[in-house]
Amino acid sequence: MSHAHKTDITIGTPEGADWVNQMNEGFRAHQLSPSSWSRYEQCPRKYWLSRQRLPRKASMPAALGNAVHNSVEDICNLVIDDRDDDEVGWMPPTAKAILDRHWKIEKDGFMATPRHPRWKDELITQAHDGLVGALNILCSKSLLPQTKLSELTISDWKYVQSIVLANEGTLVSECGRLMGRLDLLVADLDENGQSRGWIVADLKTGRPPVGALDPKVSRQLRFYRDLLKRNNPDHPPIRAEGWYSANQTIHEATGDNVIDDAFVAWEGMRPSSEPLEATPGERTCGFCEWKAWCPAWWNATAEGILPSSGAFRDEVVQIIRYDSEGGAGLIERMAPVDESGNVSPSPKRFGFTVKDQAKNQLDELISDGYEGILFIGSARVSSKVLHLGDWSEIMPWQPISESPTPV
Ligand code: SF4
Q1: Phi, psi dihedral angles at 336 (to 5 degrees)
Q2: For the chain, how many structural domains are there in total?
Q3: In whole angstroms, how far apart are CA 219 and each of 128, 177, 240, 297?
Q4: 332: buried, middle or exposed (CB in 10 Å: 19+, 13-18, 0-12)?
Q5: According to the model, what pLDDT value does residue 16 have?
Q6: Distance between CA atoms of residues 220 and 33, nearest Å
Q7: How much distance in Å is there from the Cα of 303 to the middle of ligand 1?
Q8: 48 vs 6, residue with greater confidence
């Protein structure tokens, strides 16, 4: 049973559209996605740095999310036409095998990324629960009488597949300026199993909201909704939902159309050689992966705008003494002298210990002959000693004040 003509739905942009031609003529297109928009809004400099082809940092939550998303996609696309409709007990082992495969792909990619923390193999249990949660939500959207995956028949899953109108597509506006990765587009069934519209769903493997959706998540969901509406003038009613696999809850995003705001943000996100404005803040800078290239947060720390204390700390330092065998030494904090990231010695010195991943990074820098200033990310502080390990990063301090190739 089919609920919509899948081929009638436009999620991408046909070749030959205006923006493709503009790019061919040398127009340097840039695209706004919900994540780049959010980065730009948090701190324009963060967005600008993210575009400078700097080494990215692998993250465990992102790897877990990818493994779950890609597994859901594969399970939605399973070819099961020739299987016995009544077969049961096939889904749990199939889902596990698919997840294991994606887990390995993620792990390989993670370990091959030079900037990576410790890989947590034990989180596969959480990924598995997330996948089961996502599949359960899909079954409930299909109004299946029971949603126990071990009892799911081939015929049940064919039915679920029939309500999935698209999965993992790229939504692009006709002008090419706005884009987003769409997780799932499913038929919105009424209690009689009749389609009354579409649901654009974003699968969330992170912490479910308590109460209302986070405004950024709400905007992201509405962005998909509104882009889909724009690309499909004859669309039926569309709902935008966040599907939280951890506790299998569904949160609908409602509210105004966000496309006009997205175009305004797009204008500000144009490529430039000059760095965009930095807006340091405790939360914004907290998890910023571009600190080793940004002078603003270090100046803000020196000025007291950002806190310089806490159980974990970032530092800009030079090494005074280091005993590689013992994994300990003495460092000196460097003081900012200008807006470009130049620094000078200060009287502040700290003992430090280093092991595991951070030690490998430091030893490698030293064996490469690097003697310059260092950025230390996430040092654990206890009794005025900085402790560096798998949770930390040690990199050259390389603030960027101009982009050689604006992208
Ligand atoms: S460290 Fe802070 S100020 Fe610098 S780019 Fe990141 S968020 Fe912006």
Answers
A1: -65, 145
A2: 2
A3: 28, 17, 10, 27
A4: middle
A5: 41
A6: 9
A7: 15
A8: 48
CA–centroid distance, 298 to ligand 1, in Å, is 9
405 domain-assigned: no
Q: Is the pLDDT of residue 188 over 70?
A: yes
- 293: Cβ–Cβ under 8 A, 6 or more apart, which residues? 49, 52, 54, 398, 399, 400
Does 258 lie in the same domain as 213? yes
Per-residue model confidence (pLDDT) at position 8? 58
Domain stops at, among 239, 265, 291: 265
pLDDT in tens, 205-222: 999 999 889 999 999 999
Three-class secondary structure of residue 271 per DSSP: coil
Q: How far is the CA of 141 from the centre of ligand 1 (A)?
A: 41
Residue of higher predicted confidence among 406 and 345:
345
> DSSP of 390-403, one letter per residue?
TT-EEEE----SS-
Q: What is the pLDDT of residues 347-394, one digit of tens each?
A: 999 999 999 989 999 999 999 999 999 999 999 999 889 999 999 999
pLDDT at 14 over 60: no
Domain span at 365: 282-396
- Output the CA 339–ligand 1 centroid distance in Å: 13
- From 36, 39, 46, 400, mutation site for ligand 1 pocket: most ligand atoms within 8 A of C-beta: 46
The last residue of one of the domains, among 238, 265, 292, is 265
Q: Which amino acid is at 33?
A: S
Same domain, 391 and 318: yes
Percent of the chain with pLDDT over 70: 92
User: Considering Cα of 351, then 356, then 358, then 362, what sign does the dihedral take?
Assistant: positive
Say whether both 237 and 308 belong to one domain: no
| CATH for 327 | 2.40.50
- pLDDT single digits (tens) 118-139: 999 999 999 999 999 999 999 9
Nearest to 225 by CA among 200, 204, 242, 195: 200
Asked whether 300 lines ligand 1 (CB < 6 A), one says no
296 lines ligand 1 (CB under 6 A): yes
